[in-house]
Amino acid sequence: MDSCSSFPCLNGGSCTNIPESYTCSCPEIWKGTNCEQVALVCARKPCVNHVRCEDGPTIYTCICQPGWFGQTCDIPVSCGDPGPIENATVTAPGLTLGNVAIYACDRGYNATKGSEERLCQSDGTWSGEPLVCKFAESCNSSPCMNKATCTNLIEDFKCACGYGWAGKTCNLDVQPPQVANCSKSVRVNATERTHKVAWLQPVFSDPMNTELQLVSNYEIPSYTFPWGDFTVQYSATKLRNGLRTECVFNITVRPTPCESLPIPKHGTILCNNWSPDYGQFCLIACEKTYSPSPPGRLGTWMICGDDGRWSSQPNDCDLHLNNESYILSYHPNYVDFMYEGCNDTQRLRDLYLNHMLKHPDISLFSRLYPGYEESSSVRMYCNP
């Protein structure tokens, strides 16, 4: 039987007839009954762009160089198109291993994160992150008003406002009216019960040249005032923003002041300490066993009115009365106006107030200008 006549041996194998069959002698890299199985594939050098080839029981493996893949390492690695980027351009001369994609923000945009260069890596991915570009030239549209300085920010802007302006775009008028020639407070002494006072009228203005509403509690910058305290007030309100500026000062009109009385020898002077600007009412008291020499008398009021003049001057307590009976015979009430020492203040204060309330004119003064009931209502000038 000629079994080899059918050429059963494959891949260059040689056939030999044997009884009732055949046998194949296979070349080096083939095996099997008909030389149909690969024995040493790597010997045929199937791999390209490889590091090494490894034979297995039934298959071989190509270990590829970086940048290649596939059964025989014949397919180059590709990172693919990096894709379009918003507000930027991408230049990628190649998409395979080692190629670099270059990003550039469009004009007017700044990179805020990501990479300006990305490398195609052996695993088929681009290194880094895509570039992010955001608008950074908002000042080109001149958003700041009223001569403000504009600074670009990322997708924003900042205005440095000039004096008197505020807001995101410096469009808010926050300038209050300005005032010049605002008078200081005035104090005058008047011998008469009224006195004419004139002052400099303030001038209001607005650097933004907008309308002002002016108000004052005096129509003209002068007035005839009685004694007292008065407030002069001017105000200007800016109609555009409602801001207000005031000029306020006080005018004080008082009677002509009185000169200080001399403190009597061995005596003290008791005077009103409430509303002393409107009048002075004083008594003298003497140290115990002393009295004024005639014609001086204890219990006589010394009064200073609006002309600044005293009705009388105090006498010294220079009459020494050794015996109290002499004092009583001299004047029954003299003993009330005598004191032990300068610290006898409460008794002298009570004496002064009791004596004052008996005088119709002086008690009327206390009702017009209250304050005599306070503990410090009486001043005491003592000559020890």
Automatic annotation (TrEMBL):
Pfam families: EGF (PF00008), HYR (PF02494), Sushi (PF00084). One of its GO terms (molecular function) is calcium ion binding. Residues 172-255 form the HYR domain. Gene3D superfamilies: Complement Module, domain 1, Laminin. One of its GO terms (cellular component) is protein-containing complex. The keyword Disulfide bond applies. Disulfide bonds join 26-35, 64-73, 161-170. Residues 77-135 form the Sushi domain. InterPro entries: EGF, EGF-like_Ca-bd_dom, EGF-type_Asp/Asn_hydroxyl_site, HYR_dom, Notch_Cell-Fate_Det, Sushi/SCR/CCP_sf, Sushi_SCR_CCP_dom. One of its GO terms (biological process) is heterophilic cell-cell adhesion via plasma membrane cell adhesion molecules. Keywords: Disulfide bond, EGF-like domain, Glycoprotein, Repeat, Signal, Sushi. Residues 1-36, 38-74, 135-171 form the EGF-like domain. It comes from the Eukaryota. PANTHER family: CRUMBS FAMILY MEMBER, DROSOPHILA CRUMBS HOMOLOG. This is Uncharacterized protein. It comes from Dreissena polymorpha.
